[in-house]
Every structure is written in C-alpha cells, then in structure tokens.
Amino acid sequence: MTNEGEKDLLDPRVARREKLNKIIERGIDPFGQRFDNRDLIGDCIARGNEVKWVKEDGTEVPLPDFTDESLDYRKWKTDNGPGEETGPTVRVSGRIMLQRGQGKLFFLSLRDWTGDLQIFIGKGQVGEEAFELAKLFDLGDLVGAEGRLGRTNTGELTVFAEKLFFHTKMLEVPPEKHAGLTNPELRQRMRYADLAFNDGVIKTFMDRTKIIKSIRQTLDDQGFCEVEGPTLHTIAGGAAARPFETHHNALDMPLTMRIALELHLKRLMVGGMERVYEMGRVYRNEGISPRHNPEFTMIELYQAYGDYRSMMDLTEKIIIDAIDRIGGGYKRPFGDKIVDFTPPFRRATYAELFQDATGIDPADDAAVLDLAKKLKLDTANKHLDVVRNEIFEEKVEDSLTGPIFVIDYPASICPLTKRKADNPAIAERFEMFILGMELANAYTELNDPDLQEDLFKTQLEGQDEEDSMAKMDHDFVRALRYAMPPAGGLGIGIDRLVMLLTNKKSIRDVILFPLLRPESE
Length: 521
Description:
Mean pLDDT: 92
Strand content: 25-35%
Shape: elongated
Low-confidence stretches: 1-7
Largest sheet: 9 strands, mixed
Number of helices: 17
Number of domains: 2
CATH superfamily of the largest domain: Bira Bifunctional Protein, Domain 2
C-alpha cells in the first residue's frame, strides 16, 4: 500500500509546487514581471532569411533550402567554410510545449499565439545560474529567452539563448502529448487548455477574428455605418424564434433578449441612416446542435435604395473578401467535401429547386399534400405554404451543395419582405445555402406600413402561439409611417461562416465559450 508521503512524490502537481518554491528561493517571481521589447515568434520565423553564413573573408554564402529533408546542414557548412553563422538577436516568450536534453544543454519548444520556435539552452551560453533555473522548467510554464536567431545542425530555426526569463509557473499538469485534450465537452469547458495545448485551435479563432475584420472592412469600403442596438427588447421581433425572457426590477416589466437585429436597424433607416449594420450577439431559446447555439453572432445590414439582388452581390463580396483575408484559396475542404467558392455563386428559384428535388410542381396543391403525407409530415391546420416549406426543408435543403442563392420564396412565409410587382404571391427573398446549411437570409424590405401592420395581425394557420412573429410591434409600424426608403436587407450567421471557412463541423468549435450544462461536482 502506498502511504500519503509516497503519493505526494508521485503527484506531478506536488513536484511542480516544489519547483515553484525553489524558484522563489532564487529570488525570482514565479508569476513574472513586465517583459519589454518582445519579438513575436511568428515575426522571428519570418526573419529566418536574416540568418547568414559568413565566410572568413566576409563574403556571404546563400543558405540552402531547409525544406529539403535530405540536407545535412553540418556538412554544408563544412563544404562552404571556414566561416560562421550570423543572425539577429531576438527576445521571445511563450509556453513550453516540448522539453528535451540532458547534461549541459536543453532544447525547448516555445509557443506564443503566432507560432512555435525552438530554444537552445547551453550551460556555456547562459551561465550556471540560468542553467540551474532551466532545470526547474516544466511543460506548460511560460518562459522567455534572448539570444541569436540561427539554425541547428539539422537546419531547424532556433534561438540560441544567452539570457533566460521566468514568467509563470504552470501548477496543473498539461494534457498528454499524443492523446491530448480530446473530449469535446472538456475542450469547450476548458477552452484555455484547448487553446494552449491543442494544435490549430488558436489559428481557428485568429481566423475568426480576421474574417470579422474583413467583413467590417468590406462594409466600411461600401459606405456602411456600424451601430449598436439594444439587446433587451420589450417585444422580440424580426424573426420567428422563441426568446429568453427576463424581468426589469426597477420598472417592474418583462423583457426579452433580442432574437434579431432587424427592427431597430430599420428604425435607423427611417431616421436617415441609409447604410447601416450591426454585428452582435442574438439569443434564441432553442435546441443545441452542431449548427445551433442559443447564443450566437449575427450581422444584419440594410442598404437604402437597394433590393435583394444588391444583397446577393454584397453577400458574395463579403465571403470572397473574407477568404482572401485568411488565405487558402476558393476551393476549400469541409469535412470530406470540397466547396468551390469561385464567384459568381449560382442563383436558382425556390420553385425550380423544389420541382427538381421532388419531381412535382410546387403550385400543384394536391400533389404537395400527397407528398407531405408520404413524408409523414403533419399537415393539420397548417397553411399550405407552411407545408410546402417543410417539404422544401426536408427534400431540398440538404441537397444544396452550393454556394447557392435560393431566391423568390412564397410570400406568405415572409412577413417582412416586399412582394414581386408582377406576382404578389412571391417574395423578393433569398436564402444562401452551402452543403445544406443556411448561411445568409436577405429581403427586398417591406416598407409599406399598412401592409406590414396587416401581416403582423394575420398569423399563418398552424403557427405556434409562442412564435415571436405573432407579436405586434406598434412602434415599428409607426416608424414605417414616417417613410422608410426602399431597401435591401441581409443577415449572415457569423459562426456558420467561420465554420465553413475554417473546416469545422461543429459550431461549438468556432465559439470560444458555447453554452454547457453546469459542471457536475
């Protein structure tokens, strides 16, 4: 039987705290101090071409191609010598990801948020005191090094340390290198460990940041103004979704978290802000799946004197600009498939796609009802267009590899959309699909206040009483009476766009902190 003292010796956390105490005994703050003039590792990697081989007579010899795995750099130097390697002095810091060596030298791999870089620590180069400090380093510790940037005999870019710095002792044990932090829920709950130790996670979220910056830049270039609307609403409008409900104590009134950004942005259009957008969180009290999180990021934008065709052009530009920003080309993997984002994107009508997928004319009501029964869809007390759309969702959407704009929806399921002048049964709306996933939704916006009021009053048969679209926003109708210009409006799910462009199959892999059940104790 192992006694308590032996357990302590076997517990790596105890060993880490012992090293922490030894660092303190050396007069070093184990949780670090300011570290000025730091070089990012990514910048150091980019400066690899500044490493030179200089012969004794002062001439520089171009370094070989280090991507050649057969290269023997030691032999190359001998063949091109006598001389010495030179390189810039750099100061780097990061987390220790790998640690090897013994005797009078160590090799570390340091990681910051721009990349990984090897550090060579030789006793003769850093001195005995610093070398003894290096013996107290653990995987996961945050440390720094200053020294010459150069290459080892195998050609690996390396900082040959002359000074060492200790930033922070990691007191927990890092995930095992090969098994890693693999449990999806644990990765999401412990996102800090996921980011720190799992390869590629930081890059995904850095790419997310680049995509968001790109969207803002595209819209700025198009003359749009970014605004901030309220997240607490008295009426949840602008979408058909169930809201989260809350209560304001001082005013003793119920409120909901916003489910969309639309109606307040349109109020701004009425006021004269002709190109306006908001990118922010919305909240829908619905289920969780690989494509849904109750709290997610959307962008909605409105362009005066545009229409849904203007929004198709803008959507395409937003996506293409984002791809250009993060790189990787227009043919991109998503799981085991390739999505070709080469513009222009395909455009097809709702009706033609319905007929192609089902073999029936969507205007044939009897055939639609017959197909619904075959698909075992509940048709009782439902408007026929609702039934039609349920068939479309089941039979058509998953087949849309895209990117494709599905245009011209049944008007009765689009209460905020302008009808086609030559066919009032059709709404000027599109949804954009990629691999069966809806990415964007856009309208030629309805700006007729009387028609809007009628549509708010008239609910489709079979619609859930708790559906937010059933609630009348009287102030919004009043705002329309002050004259909103004809406009195009667009909404894009940012999380889904990031999923598609970074090859992540779950929305929870592109949201830093998705909603999770409370952790069991």
